[in-house]
């Protein structure tokens, strides 16, 4: 393993996804690399905080109640810190983030599940594939975590035709959107769920939904100028334009 390889394994090490040999080698690397040591500490702290919302596997009934209650929870207004005020301590930032937990509990659980899913491969001959999944899962989890914690995050929830429920989370300041889903009906192998931004009366492709019943994914592109997010059933690989009516259309909530 080269020194460059070692620098890419902070996420895998923090989540105990390395083999024993790799873990020992990376631990030695940490004694000489302050940057990696700091990054590992931050990732472990983030994972521990997310785990607070996923310490127990929620029942299907509990998830349904959470999804149904999200529209009834008042969205907090954006918080703009005063330029001359004292900086918030990490503990204060964490208490502020936890205050929004009623809205974010299910989504946080799905973040943890999404990260864990990236580390399922352990066979030695698939190490490279594992590392690729680690990087992708780490990037997705970091982006979704930042989006959920954004002061101007907006939520829109609705049922999906054919089964399941969905929530769109968007932030104008971060220019990012996430799609959180639960209980999606399985599709034939020749079909896939595709996401779209509704902009100026046009549906703009925004990525494919993972072929799982529950999960979360970041949309491609930005929400600039969009008024809603829709999901359609498309041929495998996706389409440039929708070929069917949306199974769900989630309007953005005004700030």
From TrEMBL:
- Transmembrane segment boundaries: 104-123
- The residues covered by the Anti-sigma-K factor RskA N-terminal domain are 6-48
Please report the record's description of how this protein sits within the membrane.
Single-pass membrane protein
Tell me the keywords, alphabetical order.
Cell membrane, Membrane, Transcription, Transcription regulation, Transmembrane, Transmembrane helix
Q: Where in the cell is it found?
A: Cell membrane; Membrane
Residues covered by the Anti-sigma K factor RskA C-terminal domain: 105-247
Pfam families recorded: RskA_C, RskA_N
Lineage: superkingdom: Bacteria
UniProt protein name: Regulator of SigK
């Amino acid at each position: 393993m080269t020194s460059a390889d070692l620098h890419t394994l902070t996420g895998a090490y923090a989540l105990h996804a390395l083999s024993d040999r790799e873990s020992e080698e990376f631990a030695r690397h940490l004694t000489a690399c302050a940057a990696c040591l700091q990054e590992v500490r931050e990732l472990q702290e983030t994972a521990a905080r997310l785990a607070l919302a996923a310490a127990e596997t929620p029942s299907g009934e509990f998830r349904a109640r959470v999804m149904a209650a999200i529209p009834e929870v008042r969205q907090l207004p954006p918080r703009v810190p005063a330029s001359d005020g004292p900086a918030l301590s990490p503990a204060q930032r964490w208490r502020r983030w936890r205050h929004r937990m009623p809205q974010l509990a299910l989504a946080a659980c799905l973040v943890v599940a999404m990260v864990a899913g990236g580390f399922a491969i352990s066979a030695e001959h698939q190490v490279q594939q594992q590392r690729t999944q680690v990087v992708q899962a780490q990037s997705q989890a970091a982006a979704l975590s930042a989006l959920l914690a954004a002061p101007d995050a907006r939520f829109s929830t609705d049922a999906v035709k054919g089964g399941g429920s969905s929530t769109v989370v968007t932030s104008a300041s971060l220019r990012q959107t996430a799609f959180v889903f639960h209980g999606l009906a399985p599709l034939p192998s020749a079909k896939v769920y595709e996401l779209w931004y509704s902009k100026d009366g046009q549906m703009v492709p925004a990525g494919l939904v993972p072929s799982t019943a529950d999960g979360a994914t970041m949309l491609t592109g930005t929400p600039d100028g969009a008024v809603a997010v829709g999901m359609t059933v498309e041929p495998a690989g996706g389409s440039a334009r929708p070929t069917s009516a949306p199974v769900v259309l989630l309007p953005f909530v005004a700030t």
